[in-house]
Amino acid sequence: MHKSNLRPLCITFFAGGIWDTVAGILYLFAIGTGRLIDEPHTHSFYSVFLASFFFCFAYLQFLSSFNIRRYIFIVGCLIIGRVFYVIQLYVYILFVKDFPTTFWFTGIIDAAFVLLYFIFTFRGGLGIKDLFLPFRESQKIKYNQQPAEDLKC
Question: What is the DSSP-derived secondary structure letter of residue 39?
């Protein structure tokens, strides 16, 4: 039954929402030039701007986790975003002179989320196509033929 197979993905996706909420709160109140964490230097406008994105990502993760099979494409979108962030972060840390290593641990956490998303997606019986290609209306029938409780976590 798919319901129990996707539960670990639902829980991990919800946890990713908590992680992004924490990041949003930090960017809103603690990160930025003249604030508690000001390395790398970030104007407060951009800190608040980034916080808004983190809150949007968290919202998507929280709500999607309650019906993960239907919104699996959002997991794929977050994978792309997290992978881009991890690559960008470590390229800057390794190759940009004097770039602060303040957020090195966030790259590890985000990489761990990506790995868990892939593992739990495949163990739940879904594939790469489900993650990165949204289903068309003609494919919707496949999802709606399952009992309603089977679509949720």
Answer: S
CA within 13 Å, CB half, 15:
13
- Cα(first)–Cα(last) distance of the chain, in Å? 11
Residue 47 three-state SS? helix
Domain that holds residue 20: 2-151
d(CA 37, CA 91): 21
- The mean pLDDT of 51-60, rounded to a whole number, is 94
The 10s digit of each residue's pLDDT in 78-106 is: 999 999 999 999 999 999 998 888 889 99
Count the helices and strands in the chain (H runs, E runs).
8, 0
| Number of domains the chain contains | 1
Cα 54 from Cα 69, distance rounded (Å): 23
